[in-house]
TrEMBL record:
It comes from Candidatus Scalindua rubra. InterPro entries: HAD-like_sf, PGP-like_dom2. It comes from the Bacteria. This is Phosphoglycolate phosphatase.
């Protein structure tokens, strides 16, 4: 059965894992943000995310830049990371929810 997204006006997202298991989705999104820095950095980013689930993404961005990249982070960079992260999570969650509910 195919799930026709265009038939619906509203979608509800619950990002604490009740509807869609978002932990892995968010881990993948954090990793994707830092893929240009290599596999070691991606692994560190994902591991840190998984170990610090309740921490704000903004604090994680700062931590990653300061501790893994040894770079200063600006509000502009945080904003860019936030927008890209949000897009990745929403897209992956949408695909996951469609897949989950269409099986």
């Amino acid at each position: 059965m195919k799930f026709d997204v265009d038939k619906y006006r509203f979608f509800f997202f619950d990002f604490d894992g009740v509807i869609v298991d978002s932990l892995e989705t968010k881990a993948q999104a954090f990793g994707a943000l830092f893929k240009d820095y290599g596999e070691e950095i991606v692994r560190k980013v994902i591991d840190y995310h998984l170990q610090n689930g309740g921490m704000s993404r903004y604090e994680k961005f700062k931590f990653y830049y300061n501790n893994f990249l040894n770079k200063k982070i600006t509000q502009e960079i945080i904003g860019d990371l936030d927008r890209e992260y949000s897009q990745l999570v929403v897209e992956k969650s949408r695909k996951s929810a469609v897949h989950q509910w269409s099986d």
